[in-house]
């Protein structure tokens, strides 16, 4: 193993090499390059069974809950999610722990000769996300893991993860996002997400808008997959707010799971939990046998999802949420009202240029007393002055302030949240993009 100091230096080199490639927001409509490298490596992605998680919102939370549940059943687990909040190494997880810098570098070095050979023909170079996905598969095969929870990066049909032979897939709610790559209509986007479905696969379909549901179900029939639908074959039977989260009763495929504590806030996380339970139920017993309820309770109780209504500071409470599209912002707004009794709450918002800034702000407006507009360090971030003009249209001039520096924006929001309210009754939520949430997390958690 590489010494720690050397591994940290090599990690910086590897990160630089990865980020020099085409960004993960770019989809190549071909899996040929990924398959070529995997073939040279002996197809490591086929050495472990997996649960493949697609959709627009909730993918990361479902993947993390699924991972926690599989681990509770004493399986050695792998988890691959994206994007990361603070460190790229957190995307690849074995036994619920992000891999070390040394392990990350080792995976990159193991792949390098095969990648160089494939790219030596002068054709298209692999993208950042394609190479990182290959690193995850190599890591899981080498561990080895008993099961992996793998989140789709973007879309489905042409996503680099779509080379798995997963017995179970999940499609979380489909919404309007990444339209430049996935299509301008909900039906087109749903068609891309449906591309992860395979013959003889059980597909857990979260609650969908009717037009998206129709596309998903038709595609399942075409490829010979078996869909199980939230609201019909499974669903949340009961939900009540609890200290630090919520208590659920979930109708699974083989029976009912009661008294499930989920340490995450919001109705959307209850639905995510139901999808995760049913995915594991289908994975372990084909959906034909009730899982040990105590084990399910244990698994969900230790689930977490950093950057999803995560409390990172108290007095006043500062929350982080990675909502970056209107549907995510709507879920966030509802959860803020339901789970927290703030006398005043202020948003710190920064949005990337390819996102629906007006839709995000409109969704957040009923839940926020005021908003501080800022930006992350991403070159894709909307300039604060431009975002402020949109915010003024939504919130009105008196409820909007601008502070381009994130650290200062949080300070301004904290001061605002504590104005004319009892001690501890104000709150701040930092949201609008994953990069903003990640940078705020690093600032506030040191």
What does this structure look like?
This protein has 15 helices and 17 strands. With 446 residues, it is of the alpha/beta class. The protein has two domains: 4-301, UDP-N-acetylmuramoyl-L-alanine:D-glutamate ligase; 310-445, Mur ligase, C-terminal domain (Protein-Tyrosine Phosphatase, Chain A, Alpha-Beta Complex), CATH 3.90.190. The strands form three sheets. The protein has an eight-stranded mixed β-sheet with strand order 4-3-2-5-1-6-7-8, sandwiched between helices. A six-stranded mixed β-sheet has the order 12-13-17-14-15-16. Strands 9-10-11 form a three-stranded antiparallel β-sheet. A hairpin with a 3-residue loop joins strand 12 (310-313) and strand 13. Helix 1 (4-19) packs across helix 4, helix 4 (101-119) packs across helix 5 and helix 11 packs parallel to helix 12 (357-364). The longest helix has 19 residues, at 101-119. The radius of gyration is 21 Å and the shape is globular. The two termini are 28 Å apart. The mean pLDDT is 96.
